[in-house]
Specification:
Layout (H helix, E strand, L loop, with lengths): L7 H20 L1 H5 L2 H6 L3 E10 L5 E12 L5 E7 L5 H17 L6 E6 L8 H15 L8 E4 L6 H15 L20 H18 L9 E5 L3 H12 L3 E7 L2 E4 L6 H10 L5 H6 L5 E4 L10 E4 L8 H9 L4 E3 L8 H9 L3 E3 L1 H4 L1 H15 L6 H25 L6 H20 L3
Parallel strand pairs: 3-4, 3-5, 6-7, 6-10, 10-11, 11-12
Antiparallel strand pairs: 1-2, 2-4, 7-8, 8-9
Bound molecules: NADPH dihydro-nicotinamide-adenine-dinucleotide phosphate.
The site of NADPH dihydro-nicotinamide-adenine-dinucleotide phosphate has 24 residues, from α8 and β7.
Length: about 425
């Protein structure tokens, strides 16, 4: 805390991991001798830069941007870029730290990193977004590359932003280096299923967890928070697997639709018009409510998928969910559940899938995008989805086996942290003190 003041999210993420690693250190004194815990907590490189740009009124705007290149033991730094007013160094470090273990869990050769800016894209015109992205890349380009650091999207950064970023990178470097960014459009080096991957992957993970208790998503009532990239495709996969999503949200409130969220309408509002969630209730038949500013976790469900942002599900929300009989909580977002909420779920015997494991499908499919770019290939939707499903099943199996090995069956938090940490620690050990 003294070395990293005023970074509460970073402290929370590190504490959560370190809390589960004591038995690993007891088994592997060589990790402690090599000071691997201390080393892994310290980013390899942190870049902070100014992003000046001109808005549509001709006014100069200044934002602050970050790229934290956290750990490259397993491959080039890999992780998204977030554009949101809440972005600061502590938030980027928490996300980068989580990313190290998530990427290790994917089993693919990628290190961990994260970046972003305190830029608020809400209400900005296309031209403003483009100018911001161009200015952002004018500095970032010198730090990234197919073999060094490969950014992708996150909150506020989707295919449109990746397009502007890639265009500027290509222009400055005079290189068509497809593998420098992932989440690209399908016509220019993007991969099928990347857009769907995080949401689909989280639902596959939920299905695997439920299967350990002889259950499935079929017929289950599901609540998904958020209505962005992760949330929309989580909802799509839940519906495909026979569950019913009855509520979703954005930062203004939530909608409740007992008949099941109409995804076509939701996508029109969110992906095409970039509108607020309240519009859904306005346009939908009666029986649908919009609850302005309400907590989505008051809606009873058997499966809860928090897919919006960090610390969106606190202790009182967890209690409500437990009381309403929730069976499984699976994190589509990064660290959406507070530590108190997680404790409540575990004490109540609710299956809990931490984001590191459950939302790793997005970055895994980004690594598959890099593979396709490197071989100048393009895979079919079916093949890509099968690869994603196999990866999620494998992540679930590794977490489950590790939890058993350490005498805590069903503890996916321990399973994910220990599996991810050991893979990175072994590589770091092999490289010596660097
Ligand atoms: P998007 O920007 O597409 O969507 C974010 C959604 O969350 C929006 O509906 C947004 O609403 C809502 N939201 C944001 N802040 C709040 C808040 N304080 N309260 C309620 N709702 C809020 O982002 P993504 O879907 O890409 O990311 C969602 C989460 O998933 C993040 O934690 C991200 O780090 C994580 N993640 C994303 C991956 C990806 O592939 N995209 C991969 C792995 C993890 P509004 O529009 O009103 O702000």
């Amino acid at each position: 805390v003294r070395r990293n003041p005023a970074e509460p999210e970073f402290h929370q993420a590190v504490t959560e991991v370190l809390d589960t690693l004591a038995p690993v250190i007891a088994r592997h004194p060589e990790y402690a001798e090599a000071k691997l815990l201390e080393r892994i907590c310290e980013p390899e490189r942190q870049i902070i830069f100014r992003v000046p740009w001109v808005d549509d009124q001709g006014t100069v705007q200044i934002n602050r941007a970050f790229r934290v290149e956290y750990n490259s033991a397993l491959g080039p730094y890999k992780g998204g870029l977030r554009f949101h007013p809440s972005v600061n160094l502590g938030v980027v470090k928490f996300l980068g730290f989580e990313q190290i273990f998530k990427n290790a869990l994917s089993g693919l050769p990628i290190g961990g990193g994260k970046g972003g800016a305190d830029f608020d894209p809400k209400g900005r015109s296309d031209n403003e977004i483009m100018r911001f992205c161009q200015s952002f890349m004018t500095e970032l380009y010198r730090h990234i590359g197919e073999y060094t650091d490969v950014p992708a999207g996150d909150i506020g950064v989707g295919a449109r932003e990746v397009g502007y970023l890639f265009g500027q990178y290509k222009r400055i470097t005079n290189r068509y280096e497809s593998g420098v960014l992932t989440g690209k459009g399908l016509g220019w080096g993007g991969a099928r299923v990347r857009k769907e991957a995080t949401g689909y992957g989280a639902v596959y993970f939920a299905e695997e967890m439920l299967a350990t208790q002889g259950r499935s998503l079929e017929g289950q009532q599901v609540v998904v928070s958020g209505s962005g990239n992760v949330a929309i495709y989580a909802m799509e996969k839940v519906h495909q697997l026979g569950g019913r999503v009855v509520a979703c949200s954005d930062s203004s409130g939530y909608v409740y639709d007992p008949a099941g969220i109409d995804l076509e309408l939701l996508r029109q509002i969110k992906e095409v018009e970039r509108g607020r969630i309240g519009l859904y209730a306005e346009r939908k038949r009666s029986g649908t409510d919009f609850v302005d500013g309400g907590s989505i976790w008051s809606v009873p469900c058997q499966v809860a998928l928090p897919c919006a942002t960090q610390n969106e599900l606190d202790e009182s929300a967890a209690r409500q969910l437990v009381q309403s009989g929730v069976l499984a909580v699976v994190e589509g977002a990064n660290m959406p559940c507070t530590p108190e909420a997680v404790r409540n779920f575990r004490e109540a015997g609710v299956l809990f899938g931490p984001g590191k494991a459950a939302n790793a499908g997005g970055v895994a499919t980004s690594a598959l995008e890099m593979q396709q770019n490197a071989s100048r290939d393009s895979w079919s939707f079916e093949y890509s989805e099968q690869r994603l499903r196999d990866i999620m099943i494998d992540i679930h199996r590794s977490c489950d086996e590790t939890a058993r090995e350490y005498g805590q069956p069903g503890d996916y938090v321990l399973g994910a942290n220990v599996t991810g940490f050991c893979r990175v620690a072994d590589a770091m050990l092999a490289f010596g003190v660097i």
